[in-house]
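Dear Dr. H.,

I hope your travels went smoothly. While you were away I took the liberty of generating a structure for the chain from your last submission, since the lab meeting agenda had it listed for discussion. I wanted you to have the full record in hand beforehand rather than looking at slides cold. The sequence, exactly as received, is reproduced here:
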Amino acid sequence: MTRTLIITGAGGVGKTTVAAALGVRAARSGLRTLVVTVDPARRLATALGVEDLGNEPQPHAAEPNLWAAMLDSTASWRAVAMRHADPDVATRLADNDFFKAASEHFPASQAYAAADQAATFVQAMAWDLVIVDTPPSGGGIDFFAAPAQMADLVGGRLLRWLTGGPLPGRRTFYNLAAKPVLRIADSVLGSDLLERVAEFLLDLRTTYDGVAQRGREIERVLGSASIFVVTTSDPAPVREAIKFYRDLPGLAASPAAVVFNRILPEKWADSTAPPGTSLALEQNLARWSAETVRQRDTREEFSSRYGARIATIPWSTSPPTDLDGLGRLLDESKELPWAEVGIS
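The corresponding predicted structure, in token form, is as follows:
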């Protein structure tokens, strides 16, 4: 059985580094591990020290049990079209400029394609553990909401109104009646814009049954996954972490852990300047002490208010730059639920 671990949270909190570190830790504990990123910034490749990552998992040359992939949402969305439409319709749809624009610029379609591909990796059962580093948009919420959103888009009231009901012969009716009219209108406009829009909408509508069914499969995979919400103690990332309890009560109301990254040492909370310390150093120690207390209070309030399991990763002077550094990053972490994802 393949276990799934989803790493999510706001951008800039170190979740890609955490995902990479967990991947190294899992691989070194004997698990065949795939780390998948949906972040186009290529941070996972940098963190793992590999030059190139693509849509297909690649084995890590220096770590026998570790694979990595960086999803190309445009390529993944093309695969969605090929899977859920008849071959001739799928090719026409995937080559349509409006389809390309949707795959590149609509967050829901990108998140759906990423969730679809990640679920495919899990269902392949080629790995013991699949770790998914979600995109930072919406604090990762889009990744979980995308299957339902895409089903609503493709089968929604507006699209049904524009394309008509699922009557037999709808395409024939369009070819015989609507298409000639659109061509006349396009000749006046000097382009084939209206015809291409109509073709796109009709072709998109045919994917509804497949998209809806696949969306339910994706939701089952996501529903059985362990979720680590990564944050820091800063106000903006904490607000993004709160969204999981406010906006996704059905799926992510109980993440395995809310991981507070870059936590200052607890002993700094009671830092007292020794006699003879300069005023500047004394003030600096006081600021660090106050920040340590603020971080602790933030974690305690979060845990008390939402009943969250809190895990921490200590602050380090510099991010890890190699596999050994990634492996050591979690050595001093506290309360990470390793057993839930099978990592020793």
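Two observations you may find useful: Residues 167-191 have pLDDT under 50 and may be disordered. The radius of gyration is 24 Å.

With kind regards,
E. W.
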